[in-house]
Amino acid sequence: MPDTPTPPASPILSLSGALRHAVAAAAPSVVAVHSHRARSSGFVWRPGLVVTADEALAEEGDVAVTAQGGRRLGATLVGRDPSTDVALLRIDDDALPAAALAPEPVAAGSLALALGSQDGAPLAALGLVALAGPAWRSMRGGEIDARIELDLALRRRAEGGLALDAAGQALGMTVFGPRRRVLVIPGATVARVAEKLLAHGRIPRGYLGLGLQPVRRDDGGAGLMVMSVEPGGPGAAAGLRQGDVVAAIDGEPVAGLQALQRALGPGSVGTPVRLTLRRAGEAVEAALTIGERPHP
């Protein structure tokens, strides 16, 4: 009898095997993160150090992580940066393997995996890179090195875990954006911010020492009314008064309080700016040097 030809390998089975291998290879670097009434994921950045999503981490209380296999480890907060959603933890084990964050760019339409942990078991989701764009600034003023959005269903417990490409390379950290879009904080951003948190425990933020309220000026333009001036702050040093209305900064009309907050990122500290004010109906100029927000 003639030999029965061997059926060709199923491309679906091959893809399934490749994805399974990618998850298995990265899973030892991913941990579950437990904080006060909050559950999320994180990944080993360096031996003994775990990166997780700041937004998913409770503001107070004890923190612990669960490694692959269910082993629970104590953790302490090294520092956190709400502007980039990066928080750094120190754990009681420096033997867990660190994730290698890939510097390669990604393209829209590429397959992507989100990998988190639920009590030490891998928690995976498959989707596509929906958007791959240039650097951007978060609503809180953080500088993010690339805009990467994933089209997949991310569970709340997987936030703070790894985003992987089809080859299993770690692209960065998965977080929720506005309207629960799944965003990736790229590896370059994670490394830059985590280095500063490790060295200083926080990321400096710009500070005006002013309590501001959005208002509509008499001429119809937007403005920010000074509701309070903190003694000894940059605003007080520049001579601002309660009731002043900030109309422009360095000649650019103010676009609102949120836009100003975004502009007060780490790079703004120490920068001199010129404020155009309306004071009792008169135009006034003030020179102000942006300070560093005091540590709470």
UniProtKB/TrEMBL annotation:
PANTHER family linked: SERINE PROTEASE FAMILY S1C HTRA-RELATED, SERINE PROTEASE HTRA2, MITOCHONDRIAL
UniProt-recorded name of the protein: Serine protease HtrA
UniProt-listed Pfam families: PDZ_2, Trypsin_2
Record SUPFAM superfamilies: PDZ domain-like, Trypsin-like serine proteases
Gene field: htrA_2
GO-annotated molecular function: peptidase activity
Domain PDZ: 197-281
Matches recorded under InterPro entries: PDZ (IPR001478), PDZ_sf (IPR036034), Peptidase_S1_PA (IPR009003), Peptidase_S1C (IPR001940)
Family: Belongs to the peptidase S1C family.
Organism per entry: Methylobacterium crusticola
Keywords in alphabetical order: Hydrolase, Protease, Serine protease
One GO term of the biological process aspect: proteolysis
Family annotation (SMART domains): PDZ
